[in-house]
Amino acid sequence: MKQMNILKVAAVSAFAAVLASGCSESDIYSAGSGSLMLTTAFRAPAATDAAPGETPDAENLMVWISSSRGLIRRYDSRSEIPSSVTLKAGTYLAEAWAGDSVPASFTQRYFKGSRQFDIVAGSKSRVDLVCHIANVVVTVEYSDDMDERMSEYTLTVANGGGSVEFIGRDDRKAYFMMDAGETTLEYELKGIKANGESYSQKGTVNGVKPATEYNISVTPDDVQASVGAAFFNVAVDTATIDEVTSIEILLSPSVSGKDFDIRTPLYVQPGQFSDLAFDVFAYAAIRSAVVSCPSFVSTFGFESIDLMAMSPEISQIVNAAGLTHTYDYEPDTEVAKMIINVAASMLNTLPEGEYPLTFTISDANGKTSVTTLMIKCTFGNDPVAAADIDGTADVWATRATLRGTVLKPADASSAGFRYRAVGAPDWTEVAAVISGNSFSARISGLTPGTEYEVLVTAPDYVSATPLRFTTEAALSIPNGDFEIWNTSSTPYLLGADTNSLYWDSGNHGSAKMSKNITTPESAIKHGGQYSAKLASQFVGVGILGKFAAGNAFVGKYLDTDGTDGILGMGRPFTSRPSALKGYVRYEPATISHSSVSEAPKGTMDKGVIYAALMTDESLEEYNGNQFPFVIKTKKAARLFDRDDPRIIAFGEIIFTEKTAGSGLVEFTLPLDYRRADAKASYLVLTCSASYWGDYFTGGPSVMYLDDFEFIYE
After folding, report:
1. How far apart are CA 394 and CA 403, in angstroms?
2. Rounded CA gap, 187 and 217, in Å?
3. pLDDT in tens, 552-604
4. What's the whole-number mean pLDDT along residues 413-432?
5. Are 158 and 176 in contact (CB under 8 A)?
6. Would you call 95 helix, strand, or coil by DSSP?
7. Please, are residues 171 and 190 in contact by the beta-carbon 8 Å criterion?
8. Residue 266: its pLDDT value, please?
9. Can you tell me the distance from the alpha carbon of 466 to that of 93, in angstroms, rounded to the nearest whole number?
10. What does DSSP assign to residue 610?
11. What confidence score (pLDDT) does residue 52 get?
12. From the CB of residue 370, how many other CB atoms can be counted at a distance below 10 Å?
């Protein structure tokens, strides 16, 4: 009989990131991207009364998503699964694991499963991934007269790594993780016979397989006992496991303003409101949608109303007053959409005051969200008001966006701002662009790391109290001119010593074969004494060794696993530049070593420089060191994911041919900002003479680098 404890894992992309900023559904998908809903079920034997709590531990859940380039998403626990996942169109492999992998246990089970799926641009994809139990399962059953034949009996079952002991009539299930190639379990029955003699009987169960339950049945064998053979007959029955338990992680409902930011107070003069509309998204059917506001008491006689539970009489009253809604639920995608409309005629009855309009949305999964729009209805003398300055989205190193609200349209035919550095004698005037009741202006040419003050203006009006903000610092790249080296070290270091490194390279691995693939170069450079020379090459003796791409990266070479590297990608960096500028010379060669079909031997190698600014969300750890990414090149087990949702900005240049001239040429790498809701915490910057070097693919190509700097504008 199947056990069905439904618990799903859902990773829903794109929605949460855009809802807070008030985007419409058509804006949800970025170009070439789609959304993923991943449901993971666990096939396992049902837990017995003697072994409660055997349901897989959701906190031990791991979900990995890979593309043809290797691992691109890695969630090592339930808590790490983000609120949104964005994947480019393409083919992927989803893998999941849950539980604890231990050699032998009565309580610890281990599950794993995988499935290939496709993401189609602009659409939702659903993947049902079944994780089968990876254990060999063992139970023991004794005959009814066992207690008459033997006392104090135990049955010990063991594999190569551990054992469990069934004491007496123990009806629990035991779980064994077998090493690769291991297919045998050993058992030993011990006890005291009725005549007081000790008894022991050993045996083996051969050909055991994962996801299979083996029932060891023990019965007295009087015939064999009479001739001095085994006292008990031990038989093994097998059964394939197909019970299902599953785990669910889903997002809470989201509410956003249509064409306005619900997080910003709405200033409106009494009688001057326009219609307001709110988008609601949920990842299950909406069970309740409670809208509340103190003003509802005078309008309806009550402060709160559940739009999903109104009687026909109440619905008629609410709709007639101007509070209406539409609702749609798509069972196939499990996405619910609601639009809540508040008519201007209803809002224009509000007297002067502040009115919190609150939405409490609950769905069928038991998820609830609470979102409030603060409505400020005022007859104030000020024709305009300055909006709070968002230090994350609006303030950068050399520019800022200033915002305001029109309170009296008749007195605010034009609006603008005055700003200056705190302590400066003069103000700078800037006109604003008015859109409805809001206006904004983008100012540039600011000084990094400086505090500014702002006043809002209108015809014959200047606000009395300034708002203040501080621009970000304009950080440089440590050793970005590649002048500091330590060539007395083994390996060569791109810095004075291991404690002061900002850059690192694959020299730590290649030096084990007496080679440095990244070295200082004095003959070919742009400025100073040195450039960095990245020389891809085979590192080894004869056929023993591997192809190594010449590389330099911001981060730390953490360890060598055999002939493969483990790298910590990224260093702390808290500025947001607009571009990376530098000098490069690239000399590609024919690919001589290949492990990927995209770059076969005999074709031309190519080089790459890419940069990413990342948040400090979900840092990865290796031996006590934390980085945005921990890269494992062994069998391309873990590579950098250019689509990771923690990336706030990304830029890349791929070199497909030799650069012009005999020296280095200037390049500018623009950074494309994907997120405005987060500041930078880390810089990832990687340069490689062989694009497919992570896959030990390329030829003897060479790249020279010099004078890297960030541009702020």
Report:
1. 9
2. 12
3. 999 999 887 766 778 889 999 999 999 999 999 999 999 999 887 788 899 99
4. 94
5. no
6. strand
7. no
8. 82
9. 54
10. E
11. 36
12. 14
Residue 610 CA to residue 671 CA, distance in Å, equals 10
- Write down the pLDDT at residue 705: 97
- Over the stretch 229-244, which tens digit does the pLDDT of each residue have? 456 677 778 777 765 5
* Distance, CA of 116 to CA of 129 (rounded, Å): 9
Determine phi and psi for 547, rounding to 5 degrees. Answer: -75, 135
pLDDT tens by residue, 113-125: 888 888 776 666 6
Counted residue by residue, the chain has a size of 713
Query: Which amino acid makes up residue 524?
Result: I
Sign of CA dihedral 612, 614, 620, 622: positive
Q: Which of 551, 635, 553, 547 is nearest to 590 (CA)?
A: 547
Contact criterion met (CB below 8 Å) for 369 and 282: no
Residue 711 has pLDDT above 90, yes or no: yes
Residues in Cβ contact with 40 at an 8 Å cutoff, skipping those fewer than 6 apart: 8, 9, 61, 63, 96, 98, 113, 129, 130, 131, 246, 247
Element (H, E) at 193: strand 185-193
Say what the pTM is. 0.58
Q: Which domains does the chain have, with CATH numbers?
A: 4-133 (2.60.40.1120), 136-238 (2.60.40), 254-377 (2.60.40.10), 384-470 (2.60.40.10), 498-711 (2.60.120.890)
DSSP 60: G
Q: What are phi and psi of 317, to 5 degrees?
A: -65, -45
Q: Which residues contact 315 (CB under 8 A, 6 or more apart)?
A: none
Which tens digit of pLDDT belongs to each residue from 272-281? 888 999 999 8
Question: Half-sphere exposure of residue 282, counting CA atoms within 13 Å on the CB side?
Answer: 27
The beta strands (E) that lie in 13-54 are given as: 33-43
Which residues on adjacent β-strands are paired with residue 442? 401
CB atoms under 10 Å from CB of 210, counted, come to 16
